[in-house]
Design goal:
By secondary structure, this protein is α+β, with helices and mostly antiparallel strands. Among the domains are: about 105-175, no CATH class; about 185-240, no CATH class. About 45% of the residues lie in helices and about 25% in strands. It is built from 8 helices and 8 strands. It has helices at about 1-40, 50-55, 65-80, 85-95, 135-145, 150-155, 215-225, 230-240, and strands spanning about 105-110, 115-125, 155-165, 170-175, 185-190, 190-195, 205-210, 225-230. A 4-stranded mixed sheet has the order 2-1-4-3. Strands 7-6-5-8 form a 4-stranded antiparallel sheet.
Length: about 240
């Protein structure tokens, strides 16, 4: 009997120690786990109760965009945010257009005195083929500054480019058309004979007749502004003395 008691104590005592150790281990792990959670929570920024009370709004954490999204968004916002970006892009595309042999060349001849317009469509002159908008506008500026003599005789006063595209270009030509005259005057300018209308101001024709090539009596009459009765007499003079 004594032997059995010794065996019981030998078995029960280690089990008791093992149970106590297990209990202490569980409690310890729970304690440290709570400390770790408290430490992690302490590291997260929290909204201040005072700040919430003053502002009346909860603090919201703003998510930062990914680098790829930031780049794309910046590029898109920049294109949309720049004033006139779409218009500038469209203007660049338009300016890149060039005239070709198939481009329609439309002239609107306007009588500035009577406000009438005659529109005609022509084949584009070869000298304008291949020009872009800027080049064509420069060519028109030169034409306006130094118009041909034939245009001046018609009463040309200016022009304006109304539209420009690869398919069609429209130019308005303004004229003070020379009005019919029943009589004329011959005068001398830079040693050449010119023809005025009866108002003695409007040039009707600039001839290539040299004043020195005419008889002396005609020279003096023309210097004093020689009166010509009608067109028949005028053209008879031009035929006789033109070279």
């Amino acid at each position: 009997m004594k032997y059995v008691k010794c065996i019981s104590l030998f078995i029960v005592y280690p089990l008791l120690v093992l149970g106590i150790g297990f209990y202490v281990g569980v409690k310890s792990s729970g304690f440290f786990y709570q400390r770790e959670e408290a430490g992690e929570d302490a590291g997260i920024p929290q909204a201040s109760s005072e700040g919430s009370a003053e502002n009346g709004q909860a603090s919201v954490r703003k998510e930062e965009p990914m680098p790829e999204e930031t780049g794309l968004a910046a590029a898109g916002d920049g294109a949309e945010g720049l004033p006139g970006a779409a218009e500038d892009a469209e203007e660049v595309m338009v300016s890149a257009e060039t005239l070709c042999v198939d481009t329609k060349y439309v002239l609107e001849e306007t009588d500035v005195l009577y406000h009438t317009v005659v529109e005609t469509t022509w084949r584009l002159p070869d000298k304008y083929v291949g020009m872009n908008r800027e080049q064509f506008l420069q060519a028109m500026e030169v034409y306006e500054a130094f118009p041909p003599l034939s245009e001046l005789e018609r009463g040309f006063v200016g022009l304006e480019v109304l539209s420009f595209s690869r398919e069609r270009v429209v130019v308005r030509m303004d004229y003070k058309f020379v009005q019919p005259s029943s009589s004329f005057y011959l005068a001398a300018y830079d040693n050449e004979v010119i023809v005025y209308l009866e108002d003695r101001k409007t040039v009707y024709i600039e001839t290539d007749i040299s004043l020195d090539s005419l008889p002396a009596h005609l020279q003096q009459n023309i210097i004093d502004m020689m009166w010509i009765r009608d067109e028949e007499e005028l053209y008879s003079f031009l035929e006789n003395y033109s070279s």
